[in-house]
Specification:
The chain has 249 residues and is of the alpha+beta class. It has two domains: 86 residues, DNA polymerase, domain 1 (Orthogonal Bundle); 145 residues, 3-Layer(aba) Sandwich (Cytidine Deaminase, domain 2), CATH 3.40.140. It has ten helices and five strands. The chain has a five-stranded mixed β-sheet with strand order 2-1-3-4-5, with helices on both faces. A hairpin with a 2-residue loop joins strand 4 and strand 5. It starts with a helix and ends with a helix.
């Protein structure tokens, strides 16, 4: 076994015994590169990636063409890095669907934050629940450009009726912004709420996710779902109050 092979074996064994907590960022990247570039030393390449993008998150969220510009990184390794966030989202999607029952707004918000990991475009999701708040399905309602996405009420209704859902949660992200609903976000929420109400379906909340944070349009915050008693909200008054209490930074 060469010195190169011995280093790989030691790093893999260290991960299996200790996890990643004691690893530096470049060691994590190096470990990942072992599986994309099996035949040569990738230590220098790992350092170059961290220097270029600043962090593991920076690497995973970078454009694939920018990753390939780093010396020693080919299409195979760049594709692997882009897969990580996508696989994480898929994992969270399936794990969230396995939850027996959601009991609070905060629980849903935490799930949504993990669902948006690494996304650089704005995406809307529709979460469909039965009347016991068991998650029936998570539907991709479409992508937009940064901070701009539209959701057709007809699309939401069709998906909800098809799954016989009693409760709907709408969510979208602000990849390059803060988790503050725009006036358009609030208008869409009110419109969708009224239309779903005619169909006997409750729009529980509209979440706005930005990085590790989320906000809610209807203002339910972290109340327990069993205690909710939603009332009609005046759009102009709500937006004025929300803006006063949540100034943009």
């Amino acid at each position: 076994m060469s010195t190169h092979d011995g280093h790989r074996a030691r790093l893999k064994e260290r991960f299996l015994n200790e996890g990643l907590d004691s690893f530096s960022t470049h060691e994590v990247v190096e470990l990942m590169l072992f599986y994309a570039i099996p035949q040569r030393d990738v230590n220098e390449t790992a350092h170059l990636l961290v220097e270029r993008f600043g962090s593991l998150a920076g690497i995973l969220e970078a454009d694939i063409d920018e990753i390939k510009e780093v010396e020693g990184v080919g299409a195979h390794a760049a594709t692997m890095f882009k897969m990580i966030c996508a696989v994480t989202r898929r994992y969270e999607l399936e794990r969230g669907s396995a939850e027996l029952r959601y009991t609070s707004i905060g629980q849903i918000g935490k799930y949504l934050v993990s669902l948006y990991i690494g996304l650089t475009v704005e995406r809307a999701y529709i979460l469909l629940f039965d009347n016991s708040m068991k998650l029936l399905d998570v539907v991709n309602a479409g992508d937009g450009v940064v901070n701009s996405v539209n959701v057709a009420p007809r699309f939401v209704i069709e998906k909800a009726l098809r799954r016989n859902a009693s409760v709907v949660v709408l969510a979208h992200n602000h990849p390059n912004g803060v988790a503050t609903p725009s006036r358009e976000d609030i208008a869409l929420t009110m419109q969708l709420r009224q239309i779903l109400d005619v169909c006997g379906i409750t729009l529980l909340e509209h979440f706005i996710v930005a990085g590790k944070f989320y906000n809610v349009v209807l203002g339910l915050n972290d109340r327990k779902l069993s205690s909710l008693n939603a009332t009609e909200i005046d759009l102009d008054r709500f937006y004025r109050d929300f803006s006063d209490n949540n100034p943009r930074t």
